[in-house]
């Protein structure tokens, strides 16, 4: 239920507005001064503020500044009987959502409040939207013909019907764990709410708690304002904890408490906040082995492992390779307008015979690289990387692997090849920059420069 704070030094105005908004089901708080208002905002999760610009001896514009400083995302509607164009412009410049003059009709107030709260919800959704694989989500992980893939599809549809159950997805890097998580979310009743993802291995230990649970203003050095954590951002939706096996033991204990109590406490906060979130975790580690070694909590494992979905590596479901290759060829062919129509049977045979240590991610990157460097109408064996032919006991000549569109010119063709080579090396090292630099025999700084240049 949304909370609305009314800041007005006239009690009868507060009471009338409170009555109108409570009839619409909102929780309404009141404050007669700026100081009282800031205390309310500090103690409560306020979604919207109605602020009178004329607060007796106080300047409403200054109160607006303080509110925005405390919480930049807070929406504020200005109400005043002493309005002017200048004060309206000043308020809007400071981030006020709307400007209303007294007296105003109840219906007009209801409309503006509803619009403001809808805008807040949309802003959060846009902020949390992740680009890049929406089209992939709609078809993958449903792409595949192997019994293993069909079983995964069945499990995804089944667990999506139970939007509160925790899910643990396991499998090697690149097998599509994130796509499975997104499929569960978008097939469930939570699909209209946010899907929030975080890689637990990519956030420093000392920052992960604040990232997940948020923090209050002044909780630590540089905490100049309140910050909502990802669990709050994901409320009513799904939070995806990728590489949960890398989580620090102290954070494991805090995550366990959240899963048991379904509430969080911001860093530096004094009260618990109820949350309604489905937790999906994923890992490429053997968590049972990590438990025996003392690196992962057994009680947390059982909390996460309510509904396990193991994903086999691509080498164990080779029937899926031609289907996935065709899917990605169609996808990147459209994206780059390259004119590919099909894959030669010999190329399919090479792909089926390769073990794909990077799994689906490696296959996707190979097809993308081919579509960048070559044109159709057929994807041929000579378009494939050396390692595919070598594992199959064949060898491709260097001139064949470098065939490209001569119309590009030497400089652009060289850049495309260099970009593809770096991408291939990154795939092989799992994205480790230091190892990639060593593999390519270039300084790490040079590699970082080129990765930035090519958007890798």
UniProtKB/TrEMBL annotation:
Domain Sigma-54 factor interaction: residue ranges: 142-372
InterPro entries (UniProt xref): AAA+_ATPase, AAA_lid_NorR, CheY-like_superfamily, Homeodomain-like_sf, HTH_Fis, P-loop_NTPase, Sig_transdc_resp-reg_receiver, Sigma_54_int
Keywords assigned: ATP-binding, DNA-binding, Nucleotide-binding, Phosphoprotein, Transcription, Transcription regulation
Keyword DNA-binding appears in the UniProt entry: yes
Transmembrane helix is among the record's keywords: no
Pfam families the record matches: AAA_lid_14, HTH_8, Response_reg, Sigma54_activat
PROSITE patterns in the cross-refs: RESPONSE_REGULATORY, SIGMA54_INTERACT_1, SIGMA54_INTERACT_2, SIGMA54_INTERACT_3, SIGMA54_INTERACT_4
Domain Response regulatory per the UniProt entry, residue ranges: 3-117
PTM sites of type 4-aspartylphosphate: 52
Protein's name in the database: Sigma-54 dependent transcriptional regulator
């Amino acid at each position: 239920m949304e909370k609305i704070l009314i800041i007005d030094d006239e009690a009868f105005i507060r009471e009338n507005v409170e009555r109108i908004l409570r009839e619409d089901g909102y929780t309404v708080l009141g404050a007669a001064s700026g100081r009282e208002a800031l205390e309310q905002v500090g103690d409560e999760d306020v979604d919207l503020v109605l602020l009178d610009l004329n607060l007796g001896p106080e300047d409403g514009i200054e109160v607006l500044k303080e509110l925005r400083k405390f919480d930049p995302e807070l929406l504020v509607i200005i109400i005043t009987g002493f309005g002017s164009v200048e004060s309206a412009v000043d308020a809007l410049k400071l981030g006020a959502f709307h400007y209303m003059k007294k007296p105003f009709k109840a219906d007009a107030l209801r409309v503006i409040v509803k619009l403001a709260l809808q805008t807040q919800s949309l802003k959060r959704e846009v902020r949390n939207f992740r680009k890049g694989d929406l089209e992939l989500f709609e078809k993958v992980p449903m792409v595949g013909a192997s019994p293993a893939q069909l079983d995964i599809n069945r499990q995804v549809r089944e667990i999506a019907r139970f939007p509160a159950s925790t899910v643990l997805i396991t499998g090697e890097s690149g097998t599509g764990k994130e796509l499975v998580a997104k499929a569960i979310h978008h097939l469930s009743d939570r699909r209209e709410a946010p899907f929030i993802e975080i890689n637990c291995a990519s956030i420093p230990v000392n920052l992960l708690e604040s990232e997940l649970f948020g923090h209050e203003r002044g909780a630590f050095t540089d905490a100049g304002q309140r910050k909502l954590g990802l669990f709050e951002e994901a409320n009513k939706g799904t939070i995806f904890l990728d590489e949960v096996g890398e989580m620090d033991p102290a954070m494991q204990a805090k995550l366990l408490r959240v899963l048991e109590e379904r509430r969080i406490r911001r860093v530096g906060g004094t009260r618990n906040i109820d949350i309604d979130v489905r937790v999906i975790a994923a890992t490429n580690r053997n968590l049972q082995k990590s438990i025996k070694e003392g690196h992962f909590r057994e009680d947390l494992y059982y909390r996460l492992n309510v509904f396990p979905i193991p994903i086999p590596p691509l080498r164990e479901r080779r029937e899926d390779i031609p289907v996935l290759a065709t899917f990605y060829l169609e996808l990147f062919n459209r994206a780059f307008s390259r004119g590919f129509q099909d894959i030669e049977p010999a190329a399919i045979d090479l792909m089926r015979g390769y073990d794909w240590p990077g799994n689906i991610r490696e296959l996707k990157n190979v097809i993308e690289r081919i579509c960048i460097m070559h044109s159709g109408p057929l994807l041929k064996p000579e378009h494939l990387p050396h390692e595919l032919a070598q594992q199959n006991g064949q060898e491709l000549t260097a001139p064949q692997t470098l065939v490209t569109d001569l119309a590009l010119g030497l400089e652009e063709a060289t850049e495309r090849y260099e970009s593809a080579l770096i991408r291939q090396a990154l795939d092989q090292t799992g994205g480790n920059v230091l190892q990639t630099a060593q593999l390519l025999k270039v300084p790490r700084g040079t590699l970082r420069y080129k990765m930035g240049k090519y958007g890798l």
